[in-house]
């Protein structure tokens, strides 16, 4: 089976695929069955992400008056925005001590080459079971940490997840705690490959390695377990004048654009994560564009063999920036593709990364087999 080694010089077509990943799986349970909201802007993804980020800023920010706090009521008030935490939480988050503060590594990373650009989160909490319409009591929580520096704070991440369970989620106006129990050993590897169980839970500073490639096109099954949000491109039927949303139509999922955007963002995050060993800031945008162009072109050789996709509408979400609101329409279901060998690692990235828009809110969870 052919393989690719991590290059010594940065290559945007290959190097981002070696971003280190570490993943934990937990068995969680509510005391009583619950049904989480999935409409009008509130979703299981926003509840989990909001609780984790609130606790991260309250307990780990070096400026926070709640640092090290064990009073659950005060922590709940902080997570829900009812009390002050730290100066850095006013407006857009900016870490005052990025070299030493845990928040500087685990909160969303800012791009050094584009003012105001925030990169996808390095800590991802996934619980597709909570998106089901039925009530649920027991569920699985998957926690993924992306990157070299964030991986050094693995213990802090695990402590925050267990604290989340004691603090609880704000569900329909009520605080609902949940039990958090370890389920599986930690898995580690790089973002372009399947993760493997590891014996130790030390730093995520993985040595440069190899990435296995299939020796012929691979048949892959992609299942979207939470809605895949896409920009609703439209076209007009010349016969009837009807307007069709392209992502509502069988076989119209634009994989080239989906994978191109993923490659751009992954390259941007990987460059920031490499710190002093990364290429100069002046050339980083060009490298991200090169990663996008490569995947755009290579994805044209992907053949979609079959699809079973349906549209979901999750209502309207208000923008936190105060710039109005936006609709949340997307796809659930699965597709089967025939993928050329060079694109298999890029497609596998989606299983650790998420796809489409609002991945930070839990949308675009992808499970991949093959």
Q: What's the arrangement of secondary structure elements?
A:
Elements: E1 3-5, E2 20-34, H1 44-60, H2 72-79, H3 102-106, E3 123-126, E4 136-146, H4 148-151, H5 154-167, E5 169-171, E6 174-176, E7 178-190, E8 196-197, E9 210-212, E10 218-229, E11 234-236, E12 243-245, H6 255-274, H7 284-298, E13 303-318, E14 325-339, H8 344-353, E15 366-369
Antiparallel strand pairs: 1-9, 2-4, 2-7, 3-4, 5-6, 7-8, 10-14, 10-15, 11-12, 13-14
Description:
With 370 residues, this protein is an alpha+beta fold. Helices cover 25% and strands 30% of the residues. The chain has eight helices and 15 strands. The strands form five sheets. The protein has a five-stranded antiparallel sheet. β5 and β6 form a beta hairpin. α1 crosses α5. The longest helix is centred in the last third of the chain and has 20 residues. The radius of gyration is 21 Å and the shape is globular. It starts with a strand and ends with a strand. The mean pLDDT is 85.
């Amino acid at each position: 089976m052919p393989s690719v080694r991590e290059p010594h010089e940065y290559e945007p077509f290959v190097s981002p695929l070696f971003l280190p990943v570490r993943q934990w799986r937990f068995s969680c349970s509510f005391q009583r069955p619950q049904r989480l909201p999935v409409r009008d802007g509130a979703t299981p993804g926003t509840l989990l992400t909001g609780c984790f980020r609130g606790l991260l800023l309250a307990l780990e920010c070096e400026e926070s008056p709640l640092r090290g706090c064990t009073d659950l009521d005060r922590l709940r008030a902080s997570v829900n925005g009812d009390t002050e935490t730290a100066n850095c939480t006013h407006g857009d988050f900016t870490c005052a001590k990025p070299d030493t503060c845990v928040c500087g590594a685990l909160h969303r990373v800012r791009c050094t080459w584009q003012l105001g650009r925030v990169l996808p989160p390095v800590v991802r909490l996934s619980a597709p079971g909570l998106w089901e319409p039925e009530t649920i009591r027991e569920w699985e929580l998957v926690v993924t940490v992306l990157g070299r520096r964030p991986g050094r704070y693995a213990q802090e991440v695990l402590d925050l997840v267990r604290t989340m369970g004691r603090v609880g989620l704000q569900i329909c106006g009520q605080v609902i705690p949940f039990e958090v129990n370890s389920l599986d050993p930690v898995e580690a590897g790089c973002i372009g490959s399947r993760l493997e169980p590891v014996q130790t839970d030390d730093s995520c500073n993985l040595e440069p390695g190899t990435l296995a490639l299939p020796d012929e096109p691979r048949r892959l099954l992609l299942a979207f377990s939470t809605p895949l949000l896409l920009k609703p491109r439209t076209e007009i039927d010349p016969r009837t004048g009807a307007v069709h949303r392209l992502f509502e139509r069988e076989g119209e999922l634009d994989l080239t654009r989906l994978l191109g955007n993923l490659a751009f963002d992954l390259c941007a995050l990987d460059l920031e994560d490499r710190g002093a060993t990364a290429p100069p800031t002046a050339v980083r945008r060009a490298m991200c564009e090169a990663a996008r162009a490569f995947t755009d072109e290579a994805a044209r050789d992907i053949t979609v063999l079959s699809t079973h996709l349906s549209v979901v509408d999750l209502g309207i979400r208000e923008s936190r920036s105060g710039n109005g609101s936006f609709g949340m329409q997307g796809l659930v279901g699965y597709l089967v593709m025939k993928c050329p060998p060079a694109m298999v690692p890029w497609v596998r990235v989606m299983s650790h990364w998420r796809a489409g828009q609002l991945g930070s809110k839990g949308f675009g969870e992808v499970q991949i087999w093959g």
